[in-house]
From TrEMBL:
<dbReference type="InterPro" id="IPR011333">
    <property type="entry name" value="SKP1/BTB/POZ_sf"/>
</dbReference>
<dbReference type="Pfam" id="PF00651">
    <property type="entry name" value="BTB"/>
</dbReference>
<keyword id="KW-0880">Kelch repeat</keyword>
<dbReference type="Pfam" id="PF01344">
    <property type="entry name" value="Kelch_1"/>
</dbReference>
<dbReference type="InterPro" id="IPR011705">
    <property type="entry name" value="BACK"/>
</dbReference>
<protein>
    <submittedName>
        <fullName>BACK domain-containing protein</fullName>
    </submittedName>
</protein>
<dbReference type="Pfam" id="PF07707">
    <property type="entry name" value="BACK"/>
</dbReference>
<dbReference type="InterPro" id="IPR015915">
    <property type="entry name" value="Kelch-typ_b-propeller"/>
</dbReference>
<keyword id="KW-0677">Repeat</keyword>
<feature type="domain" description="BTB">
    <location>
        <begin position="32"/>
        <end position="96"/>
    </location>
</feature>
<dbReference type="InterPro" id="IPR000210">
    <property type="entry name" value="BTB/POZ_dom"/>
</dbReference>
<dbReference type="InterPro" id="IPR006652">
    <property type="entry name" value="Kelch_1"/>
</dbReference>
Length: 599
């Protein structure tokens, strides 16, 4: 569907706000006491009370303006008029001609409403022609929403975009580091990222002080530390010897100081002594809920490369390749615990103890030898919870659950580095049987579940984290658009810039849908129906992403991949379909985990 050239955004369906009755007077030049001088020499009239009430950042300026005149000479008349109309009516028209300029002015005025609308308008319209301009503005304003709408497009066109001079001259150090380590760039080659670092360093080292960053003013030790941080954002273990040799013959390599060439070389050698990154798929199972209180979890860890070789070798029309898994690891587990992966360990969280009481205990399981050790217990006992990794996969979060008496809204996070749990803000909805997934650049999305008195839920809620100037984390919740279908214990994964949800624990809603990630605080996002598995019922909690492949197990042990319907099909998820790729033997109704390990 062709996108509209322009869109009108309004704070309320009726378009009415407190200042709306004065809009007609303003158009007639009445009830105005301030003139705004624009870049192109025009004047726009308004009343300072209206401006101050709508844009608190202007309170001092409109109070102190001499002769009733404000000078907004960075912006043309049409931009200033659009913002003034918004101040009176709460509505604004955004188009490709004015979106970026409106965003900049709204950012200066401190209007999060307009900036989020501009980001929402631009999100589906990012293209090769405008991405550099949007990216430049995003970095100049350090606006997370604008950065997030650019990252998926940059990832898809990294080689062409990252070679542009404007890309290096406008991106700040912290933005570059975040970009290089972003999960959405997992498909970008490591050598391409190293070239970007080298080009960025050269551009900023030779820049005039007034042009870009303060990098040229840093001392040698600081520049070395900065360079180390950037190189550390790249997974060097994935760069082969041939690719690294080719990079070492490139012009950008030759332009680097010897100290930095040695630094990259040493870091690459060290990374490759540890071996390349390997991916593992871990099916696991335990007796159905409620059969016994204290039980065992069975699991098998298999290297994905071995399974992938069978998939590739399969001839057309042949039976699905079989992954013969030996479920030799049987570890004691608590009934109704939640199982999650963090770093290189499996965690079994909460559940019910031998007396049937909600447990605080947390066990850490080695996925390769089955050894079990204890992690710090949670602050509150709970079961029927959901869990997800967060903060670049370095923390484990749990949401809601049941304490044996009531459903819970409380949440906690585990930091394995300190082995400590800390409390998070309560969820808006107390619930059990929800699903959760980490969304890079946004936070953790929690979907579905069950609430006593309401039944199965369609809810979707986002927990996001920002860092204050003093380094303190600030967590907050907000509601997203509800799912199209209510679900309990659904599979949830982040794939190609969308939150994908599949199946439910009761096998009632077996369909698949995805959420377009919100561009701003005022955007709840939008769910879209996707193709379902043609033959099979999705196993709850078995939707995973493995090395940029979306996999879903069904209740019969078949594993399906979400792929383009044909080579000529568009890349939008609506045109993807499920294709069975292998079968898990020796077990039925297995759930899936995915693990990365560098060895």
């Amino acid at each position: 569907m062709e996108l509209a050239v322009k869109s009108t955004y309004s704070e309320q369906p009726s378009g009415y706000v407190e200042c709306a009755p004065f809009a007609r007077l303003q158009r007639l030049g009445k009830f105005t006491d301030v003139r705004i001088e624009t870049k192109d020499g025009h004047e726009v009239v308004a009343h300072r009370v209206v401006l101050a009430s709508r844009f608190p950042h202007l309170e001092q300026a409109v109070t102190d303006c001499v002769g009733g005149s404000l000078k907004w000479r960075r912006y043309d008349r049409n931009i200033v008029e659009a913002v003034v109309v918004f101040a009176y009516t709460g509505s604004i028209e955004i188009s490709m001609d004015n979106a970026v300029r409106l965003f900049l002015m709204a950012n200066d005025l401190g209007s999060r409403t307009i900036t989020s609308w501009c980001a929402e308008f631009l999100q589906p319209r990012v293209s090769r022609e405008n991405v550099e301009q949007i990216w430049s503005v995003a970095n100049a304003t350090r606006n997370t929403h604008m950065i997030n709408i650019c990252v998926p497009f940059i990832a898809a066109h990294f080689d062409s975009i990252a070679t542009q001079v404007t890309f290096h001259s406008t991106i700040e150090l912290d933005s570059l580091s975040s970009l290089l380590s972003d999960d959405r760039l997992v498909s970008v080659a490591g050598t391409a990222k190293l070239r970007t670092i080298a080009n960025w360093f050269e551009a900023n080292s030779t820049a005039n002080k007034e042009d870009v960053t303060a990098f040229v003013d840093e001392d040698d030790d600081t520049r070395v530390a900065t360079f180390k941080d950037l190189v550390g954002a790249v997974d060097l273990s994935e760069i082969t010897s041939d690719d690294f040799d080719e990079f070492c013959m490139s012009n950008c390599w030759m332009s680097l100081p010897k100290e930095f060439r040695d630094l990259i070389s040493d870091a690459w050698k060290e990374a490759n002594t540890r071996g390349p990154m390997r991916y593992y798929i871990i099916p696991y199972t335990y007796p159905p809920d409620g059969i016994i209180v204290y039980t065992e979890m069975k699991f098998a860890t298999s290297e994905w490369k071995e399974i992938e070789e069978k998939i590739i070798a399969r001839s057309a029309g042949a039976e699905l390749p079989t992954a013969h898994l030996n479920f030799r690891h049987n570890v004691p587990s608590r009934d109704r615990c939640v199982v999650a992966v963090l770093n290189e360990s499996i965690y079994m969280i909460g559940g019910r103890n031998e007396d049937g009481e909600a447990s605080r205990l947390v066990d850490r399981v080695d996925p390769f030898d089955g050894r079990v050790s204890s992690a710090a217990p949670m602050a509150q006992g709970r079961y029927w919870v959901s869990a997800a990794a967060a903060v670049n996969g370095q923390q484990l979060l749990v949401f809601g659950g049941y304490n044996g008496t009531t459903q819970m809204s409380s949440c906690e996070k585990l930091d394995p580095a300190t082995n400590r749990w800390t409390s998070l803000p309560d969820m808006p909805t107390p619930l059990t049987f929800s699903g959760a997934a980490r969304v890079p650049g946004f936070g953790v999305v929690v979907v579905g579940g069950y609430k006593s008195g309401n039944g199965n839920l369609c809810t979707a809620e986002l927990l996001s984290c920002s860092t204050e100037c003093n380094g303190v984390e600030k967590w907050s919740w907000r509601q997203l658009a509800p799912m199209m279908q209510p679900r309990t214990d659904p599979g949830v994964a982040y794939f190609r810039g969308r939150v994908v949800v599949a199946g439910d624990g009761h096998c009632i809603n077996t369909g698949v849908e995805c959420l377009r990630l919100p561009a701003g605080d005022n955007d709840p996002g939008q769910w879209t129906q996707l193709h379902s598995i043609e033959n099979g019922t999705p196993q709850s909690g078995s939707l995973v992403v493995l090395n940029e492949r979306l996999l879903l197990a069904d209740r019969d042990g078949n594993v399906h991949e979400f792929v383009r319907a044909s080579d000529s099909s568009p890349l939008t998820l609506e045109e993807f379909t499920w294709k069975p790729i292998f079968t898990i033997r020796n077990v039925s109704e297995a759930r899936l985990l995915v693990l990365r390990r560098q060895r």
